[in-house]
Amino acid sequence: MSNITEKLLKLVNSKKTVFTTGDLMLFWNIENKNSLWVNISRALKGKYLETIRRGLYKLAGVEIDKFELAGKLKKRSYISFETVLAKNGIINQWYGEYFSASDRKSKIENKYGKFDYRELSEKILNNRLGIINQGDYFIASAERAICDYFCKVGFQQLDDLEGVDKEKLIKISKIYHNKRLEKDILKLTKLL
């Protein structure tokens, strides 16, 4: 088995769909950056890897996990807002974008989709209450996504609140230190 084949098998077996240069360094056990760039260049020329953007790659012919990509496009972010609400059936409308909470507002559009990062304060971002580690990315629980959404847009009617935990919702709302949000969440819990 050739050296490049062994390296590509490690990537395939990892079950990841998006790789940073740091990921490639670890999977391929390469410490020297020049050697890393030579290996990446060979994989790109052989059309085994494709560039998503500088420092971010995917295996050729492999479907990307959009949530994983959203987490890799912007460090210090987690998937939330309408994306999580739609995923959990809390709202019935899909916006065609992947919404995440981050330390800075940003919009990234590429051939894989539209990725919208909404700014939340450091204090909120650093509080992991209601954030689920999926290994390759972080995602808000339904309750955290509702609080994030209400924090940014105010009270909204939601389509289906079945499965939303009232106690968690109230507990998470307190981390924002926002009286309007806490009132909105209390108003929502009366509908549960």
DSSP E strands, number:
9
Roughly what is the average pLDDT, rounded to an integer? 94
Q: Rg, please?
A: 20 Å
**Could you state the order of secondary-structure elements as H and E?**
HEHHEEHEHEEEHEEHHH
Distance between the termini: 59 Å
Percentage of residues in helical conformation: 40-55%
Low-confidence stretches: none
How many domains is the backbone divided into?
2
Gross morphology is elongated
Secondary structural class: alpha+beta
User: How would you characterize the largest beta sheet?
Assistant: 4 strands, mixed
Q: What strand order characterises the main sheet? A: 4-5-7-6
Number of helices: 9
Strand coverage percent: 15-25%
Question: How do the strands and helices of this protein lay out in sequence?
Answer:
Blueprint: H1 3-13, E1 19-20, H2 21-27, H3 33-45, E2 49-53, E3 56-59, H4 66-73, E4 77-79, H5 81-87, E5 97-102, E6 106-110, E7 113-119, H6 122-126, E8 131-133, E9 138-140, H7 142-153, H8 166-173, H9 179-189
Parallel strand pairs: 5-7
Antiparallel strand pairs: 1-3, 2-3, 4-5, 6-7, 8-9
Describe the structure.
The protein is of the alpha+beta class and 192 residues long. Helix content is 43%, strand content 20%. The chain contains nine helices and nine strands. The strands form three sheets. The chain has a four-stranded mixed sheet, sandwiched between helices. It has a three-stranded antiparallel sheet with strand order 1-3-2. A two-stranded antiparallel ribbon has the order 8-9. A hairpin with a 2-residue loop joins strand 6 and strand 7 (113-119). The radius of gyration is 20 Å and the shape is elongated. The model has no long low-confidence stretch (mean pLDDT 94).
